Every structure is written in structure tokens, then in C-alpha cells.
Amino acid sequence: MKILLKIAYLGTAYAGFQAQRGVSCRTVQETLTEAATRAVGKPCRITGCSRTDSGVHAKGFCASLETEDGTPVSIPPEKIPVSVNHHLPPDIAVLDAAPVPDTLHPRYSVKGKEYVYVFLDSPTRDPFYEGRAMYLKKPLTDDDVQIMNCAAGAFIGTHDFSAFMAQGSKITDTVRTVFSATVRRVGSTVEFAVSADGFLYNMVRIMAGTLLAVGQGKLPPEAVETIVGSRNRAEAGITAPPCGLYLNRVDYNEPIPWALCSPHTERSERL
Amino acid sequence: MKILLKIAYLGTAYAGFQAQRGVSCRTVQETLTEAATRAVGKPCRITGCSRTDSGVHAKGFCASLETEDGTPVSIPPEKIPVSVNHHLPPDIAVLDAAPVPDTLHPRYSVKGKEYVYVFLDSPTRDPFYEGRAMYLKKPLTDDDVQIMNCAAGAFIGTHDFSAFMAQGSKITDTVRTVFSATVRRVGSTVEFAVSADGFLYNMVRIMAGTLLAVGQGKLPPEAVETIVGSRNRAEAGITAPPCGLYLNRVDYNEPIPWALCSPHTERSERL
Fold first, then answer.
1. Could you confirm whether B53 is annotated as catalytic?
2. pLDDT band for position A270 (50/70/90)?
3. A182, exposed or middle or buried, with CB in 10 Å at 0-12, 13-18, 19+?
4. What range defines the domain where residue A43 resides?
5. How many domains does chain B have?
């Protein structure tokens, strides 16, 4: 048995989740490994469900926790969040923990993930969303949001998403299945939520930039389907900035027996 | 005519709104005065609607903007937010501006103010609420919230609120009229909202601490009325920490002709 952790972090201060050679900025993985090692009392290894870019946030990231020597983690799962959080900085928290079979891989056993991209379109910038949304100087009307939501429908289904992958990415299998894609107003923000069996590098941020171009009248809504079909990155919109992106939810092939089974993660979908 | 500003700020980094002698930490007033002076191009004076404590936040603080030499501010009101925001740090923003008669005083012409106190009671701490709520390790049940809401009813009306004033305060007129006082769950938080014609020093934070004691079963709900009647600070609960407190709204004796009349401030009641 190993331990699966559910994690939330404000990505602003980190060079993404994954430890990288030659990057001087801290990563979430390094910070979490040190905290877990202190809490467990022996060297630990953390493996994440995905990389996230520098500045990207997470409300339901998953990662496995194992000891380097392969012995079981001595802390009961329901006490792991508080024990590890005690050694973490305020911008990272373990929300929950679960014992899972050794065969579950935090990355390769993922069935689906949900990301949310947040646009803030208030008439002036808002200190409470600083670093937490992409700010649009010109507000989106209800019609704009409705058109973006219709356009997002073109993402749904199994497609080659090459047009929505950062250039230079080495991935060759560029087919992914998008389960849902919606755009809706939530208070002073407009949120694009997308779930899929997997995502290419920068895929959600390019989707968000493309839908924004639709909302701003720079692209007709029917263009999105054409762009998907083009498999050409140059046809799609900008890569929206990382500060608006949240990894909200990760689902595995088997149900995860979360210890706290917290209503928290359900409730805290909104900031 | 002078200009009234509507301001939002994250109070974490500031020693409250008002400039104070002998305090080395920056205040919102100083920061805003410098930014307005740069935007307007001549020395400006900022007068706030109230002091707020170190670490307290605001979503609808009001302050007047005047030039030191008494000449009119040359920027049209609808352009003031963007002009001043350009010179402000990310944790302060001007949301709106309005021309108002010189007889309107940002503090003494106030008809009422609304504060919100936010408790976060998720099973683990949440990076997205760090410095933005009082964290409770033990979640409040729906019954607890209901009992707190009933207890808050005892604040409504005209009372001597001496029991809810920080000891050492020099105020002698301790009678205030509370218009509304409610407690409700909002996602992973529990919010206490209170509006009144005025507030004593630390009044909302002591009210919040007292309602929390009721929710946690340390005080019976009917005790709140008795505490109000006692006029004794020692009878009330703790002074809840400043990070959970937000000045949400200020109303004046006359309607304010806000230039942007932003739906923003209505919409962004929630984080």
C-alpha cells in the first residue's frame, strides 16, 4: 500500500509542481517532499499526477507519498494532512489522504482531470484576484459568455488536439477525449471548465485564449471547430497566462478511499 | 466639489488604513496619497471613512481625494480608477470615483457601514484563504450556524455596545444602532455580516468572537442578549483575528453618483 494525497496550492511562488534540473525557483514537489520527510521521520518520495506550469494553481492535485526505503508510512491516513501541513508553507496544504494499492500510479492511473480557467472582467482590477485570474480590461457581456460557452462545445469528443499544444512539445500521441467544456459567469469572473482523459502541454491555456478571442469578437464561434480540425497551433488563440489556471479535480480508474472524505473539496470550488 | 473614491485592499501587508505616527509599517492611506499625487500631478490629501486595524481587508472602503492647494482634480471621475491604480501596488485598487459636494465628509456623513467576518471551517487549512479568514480546526455544523444566526439577532437595534468595545478605548458615546446581523454558510466558509450606523473599536471582531463561542457550544445563544445588557467587555468572547474582517460597504446620507456604477462591487461580494 502507498498513500495518495490530495493537495491544494497557490502556484504563484513556485516553478510548477515538478522538480526540474537547472531551475533555481522552488517547486511544489520539493517543498512537499521535505515536509513529508519531516512528518514521517524518514526520507520520502512524492510523485505527482501531472506537471503544472510555473504560476498555475491547484485545488485538487493528487500525488503519491512513499518512503524511500519502501516501509509503510507510519502515520494513519486521517492524520496525514495535519501532520504534513505542519511542515508546509501557507501556500500549500494537504487536504486529504488515502491508502491505495501499489499498482495505482498517480499519473498513469488517472481516468480524467478537470481544469478551470478564470477570467476576471470587473471594470477595474481587484486586489483579491491578484495572481489568481487573467484580468480583462473590457467586461464580457452575457451574450459574449453565451457565445464562448457554445464555442467550447467544439472541444467535446475525441480529437487530435495538435492545434492546442505548445510548439516544441515532444508528445506524438496528440489525441485526447474531452468529456465536458463549459463557460459560465460566476460573480465577477467568467470560468472555463474542461474535463478530459488527459491534456497536452498548455492545452487548457490555449483553449482559454481561443475562447477569449471568440468572446472578444476576434474569432467567430464556429472557428473553434475549424481550428481543432486544422491541427495547426498557429490557427488557435493566445496561450492565456498561467495565473488563471486551476487543476481542480483528478479522477482515478478506481474509487479512492479518502480518509477525511472532505466536503471541503466539493465546497471550495469557488475561491 | 471633491472626489469620493471606492477602494478595495488586502490589508495583510498594511498597518491599517490610517497613517499613524511612530508606526514603521506602511498604511493604505500613505500608499494611496502617494499614488493619487502621482496620478493628479500635484500633492493630494486622502481622508478615509474609518480607521481599519492592521490586517483588516476592505472591498468597499470610501475615502475623499482633494488636492492640497484646493484646486479641482483634473482627471474626469470615470478615468480616476485606472489612473490611480497605475501607481498603486497590486494589493490596493480604486474601484470607482464620484464627484461629491464639499460638505460631504467621508467619515462624518456616513449613514451606515457593513462589515463581514469570515470563518473558514474546512477540515484542513486552505492556501486560498491564507490571511483572508479565521481558520477553525473543528467544522461548524448546520445547527451550529443556525444557532449563531439566531444569537446574532440580539445585536439588532439601538444598544449600548460597551461590552463589544476594546478596553482602553476613549470613546464615551457607546450607543450604536445595528440594522442587521446574520450568520450563514457560504461554501467552505461561515460569514457573519453586520450593518450599523457606526461601530466601536474592535466591535465586529468581538461580536464575531462571541458568536463563535456560541457556535462552539461555549456560550448559550441567549447569553448574547445578557452580554449586551452587561456593558462589560469581560463578559463577551475573544477579539477574533483581523484577517477575517472585511469592510464591505459604506452608505452616505445622500446617493453617490459613482462614475462606473460598477456591477463589480455588487458581484464581488464573494471572493
1. yes
2. very low
3. middle
4. 2-109+253-267
5. 2
